[in-house]
């Protein structure tokens, strides 16, 4: 079956600290289509531009030049408030290090991204508990996140990314610091989400990830450019 394009990048470049002595051209003229309902891995050495490209794809950063289209709609020039809404409705993010808020429980962390939409509290709590249950973490709902193990923290971060039921899940180096069993567990979760119809975009230099059977496309970056795609 041929892929349908969900996100399309045309000649996208991203320069950090533009015009300053510490300017870095992190992403250079990338043309890339991300397929709907598939798992795409961006791989490459440290510093090759994976995280930068992921932030542009996820509308967390604007490209310095080039265009990004989501579902055929050019979003590159949109005002910030529209972009924020698109970001909230479209993407769930699992960051490197997870960015969970310490001092708050797993459940409270998961509910946080839904607050701008102001859903009924009981409904939201149920949704967060259902996600914890899907990820086999119900027993940790009330645990402060700093007490969680690495794998539990990751699953909490995944649940938080899914709370608004986004069609696209983005995860930056999801298996960094995970042992083999936890890596397998992450891949199992990714497979379940793919089966539910989600589009997954991951960065990884971990062969356990980019060689996994459920990965559909691997894009190799080198020095900010696409070196290879399959
Ligand atoms: N916020 C920033 N300000 C300045 N330079 C940055 C910034 N973020 C990334 N860079 C630089 O841009 C280049 C690409 O970095 P990026 O983090 O995108 O690569 P990466 O492939 O994700 O690396 P890693 O695997 O180490 O996370 C690097 O030279 C990096 O030092």
TrEMBL record:
Transport among keywords: yes
SMART domains (UniProt xref): AAA
Any one of the GO CC terms: plasma membrane
InterPro entries referenced in this protein's UniProt entry, alphabetically: AAA+_ATPase (IPR003593), ABC_transporter-like_ATP-bd (IPR003439), ABC_transpr_LolD-like (IPR015854), MacB-like_ATP-bd (IPR017911), P-loop_NTPase (IPR027417)
The organism's place on the tree of life at top rank: Bacteria
Start and end residues of each ABC transporter domain: 7-230
CDD domains listed in its UniProt record: ABC_MJ0796_LolCDE_FtsE (cd03255)
Keywords: ATP-binding, Nucleotide-binding, Transport
Parts forming coiled coils: none
GO molecular-function term, one example from the UniProt record: transmembrane transporter activity
Protein name, per record: ABC transporter ATP-binding protein
Species this protein is from: Magnetospirillum aberrantis SpK
